[in-house]
User: What shape does this take?
Amino acid sequence: MILAACAASQAAAHPGMGNVMAEIAARTHPKVDTRLADLVGDLQGQLTKVGNTIRQTLDGASAQSRNSGYKPPGTLGSKSCARDACCAFYYVAQDMSAAFIDGQSCNAAARGAIRLGFHDAATWDKDSPYGGADGSILLAPEEMTRRENGGLEAIADQTRAWYNKYRGFGVGMADLIQLGAITAAVSCPGGPRIRTFVGREDDSRAGPTGKLPSPFASADSLIDLFQAKTFKTSELIALMGAHSVSQQFTVDRSRAGASQDTTPGRMDVRYYSETLTNDNRSSVLVFPSDRNLALDDDTRGTWNRYRKDQNGWANVCFDAGASPS
Ligand code: HEM
Ligand SMILES: *[C@@H]1O[C@H](CO)[C@@H](O)[C@H](O)[C@H]1NC(C)=O
Assistant: This one.
């Protein structure tokens, strides 16, 4: 099963991907790198063209987009724009890019948007009857009061403002939040351009509790938590690279603003080395969760691989990030 998945992935490999896939194939731990419930919900049934593309992405096709060539068929509010499901989102993304880039770097709003996308999506796992990327983090008032969502207030306000501006043009909250994360990623130097899919259903019920990771968690518990969301361990390690653009305010309040690598305006693999070597010196603060994953027997091989391979990391990270969790 592992070999079949690797072969499928390699067919769509990018430069740098080969090494990562070879490393994954060489792993023997049965608990690691087998996707558990890869196709859930609608993806098990008869698929539309878009559904099929999503399914192929989960099976290993790249989630990255090679170009930014979408041309809107009309201005926002025009009939031709209203007929094209992507059109309004083009205008949203333009607003977002302007808010996310400061000169040569992405900024605090971009960092917040990536984390907001993760926290809306991650209230789901395969045992959850509802939850996930459904907009509930901003539609259900309770969710933003949860401790784990501390620090997201500013991007929550900004995203609500975008929602009020664009909801009349068919833009839902769930799609808006994920588009924010995707636009933020490509706004960070080194970050990938991820394909955008829209059409998620909004849900104003607060998502299930206990599904978000703690910065004090052990490697084993994090592997289990993400496996329940159908992420392979290598994908978890790749996703952790999002902390390349992270600044903490809630883990240690006496060091508010401390980043998780020395370049929080860039999406780079520096985070992987600095999590191993930086003992809270200088401006960097290393979360115990991240250090645990960097050192664990099951994960440190992958961790060290990404440390030296920006392309391999970006390809796995943002192909994993596209999973519908
Ligand atoms: C082991 C798993 C994870 C843990 C324990 C964790 C925990 C945290 C914590 C405690 C913060 C600091 C929040 C604050 O104090 O303001 C943070 C920030 C952040 N996290 Fe995670 N996280 C994890 C995985 C992820 C994933 C998978 C993503 C995205 C794909 C992500 C994206 C971010 C981003 C972008 C920030 C920076 C937010 C900002 O600077 O405003 N994290 N994370
Ligand atoms: C860095 O500081 C944080 C917060 O004070 C602490 O929880 C963590 O264990 C420290 N990390 C390392 C690697 O020393």
Summary: The first strand starts at residue 101 and ends at 102.
